[in-house]
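Backbone geometry:
***
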Amino acid sequence: MENASKALIIAGAILLAILLISLGIMIFNQAQDTVSGSGMDQAAVSTFNNQLLKYEGNIKGTMVKSMIQEVLAINAEAANNDNIKVTVKLGADSTAVEKPATSTIINNNTYAVKMIYGANNRISSVEVTGTFK
């Protein structure tokens, strides 16, 4: 009888130890998911950046207007998904905005487009320099 009660006590201690270890592992995994899940993964960032990288460099005004339309579409989708929006800065002295106007862009002029990267190497802003109306 004495051996059976000691065996039950040992079995209970082992089950309690397994429960505590499992609880510790679960808390550790949740904390790790919180830290690593705070942004896009590298493949998603690359896919996102590729949407705008085709416009980088010296391009015509019509391509700048196409790029702005694509930025507006990205920002509309970002508003639905609580993602960070891309801003556009038209001219060196202007401020970066989320909804730029294309009316100041001359179709036949050449503009220099530069991408600005933010957190996680994701494009956060686009600078367009050249001659505007």
Observations:
- DSSP finds three helices and four strands in the chain.
- Strands lie at 57-60, 87-90, 110-117, 123-129.
- The longest helix spans residues 2-36.
- The first strand starts at residue 57 and ends at 60.
